[in-house]
Amino acid sequence: MAGMLRCLLYLVAAVCLLPEVTLTQHLAGQPVDSASMGGGLQEPEAPEVMFELLWVGLEMDITGQLHIQDEELASTRPGRRLGLLLQQFVPRDLEGAEQRLQQLQDLREGPPLSPWDFQQLLLTGLSCIYRLHAASEAEERGRWVHVFTLLTQEVLWDLCKGFCPQGQPPSLGPWASTLDPVP
């Protein structure tokens, strides 16, 4: 459990300290909805703002939707944007998380992930932790742990592109024992 919390902290730190993994800049006067999100990335949100939003914590409602716990922060422009991201782009169930993982694994051999894909990778991993804690059955918990571990491996793969020896996966240390060998 301590290792999982440490990995969660790494994911949160990556979201907060890597400014290029945040959302597009919202244009003043426009409502924040899926239409205003567009498909491209412009300027990222300030890392300290993302850190503050995630630091206060998220909560999961009965439908599996994640929300920012602090209503005041959630009502800010960055909070609404993060809420929209969590609502529309982060999988709510195990099958969706596994599907996202497969999409990301298919991109492993190419160039580094786009900031948009990397952000989704990090937020999907963060979502896995919340869903793991909400899971009641041991089998379901085990599947969430497995998906989270593989998502963490994908974060390392992407960060390692161009730096690691060719074909050698980055190490997860003690976590590696929970994984099947990476192809």
Folded structure, characterized:
The chain is mainly alpha-helical. It has eight helices and two strands. 26% of the residues are buried. The model is unreliable at 4-43 and 179-183 (pLDDT under 50).
How would you briefly describe this protein structure?
With 183 residues, the chain is mainly alpha-helical. It contains 8 helices and 2 strands; from the N terminus they run H-H-H-E-E-H-H-H-H-H.
Q: Estimate what percentage of residues fall within beta strands.
A: under 5%
* Arrangement of strands in the largest sheet: 1-2
Q: How large is the radius of gyration? A: 16 Å
Structural category is mainly alpha
Q: DSSP helix count? A: 8
Residue-averaged pLDDT: 74
Q: What order do the helices and strands come in, and which of them pair?
A:
Elements: H1 2-17, H2 34-37, H3 47-55, E1 58-60, E2 66-68, H4 71-74, H5 77-88, H6 94-106, H7 115-134, H8 138-160
Antiparallel strand pairs: 1-2
Helix pairs in contact: 1-3, 1-7, 6-7, 6-8, 7-8
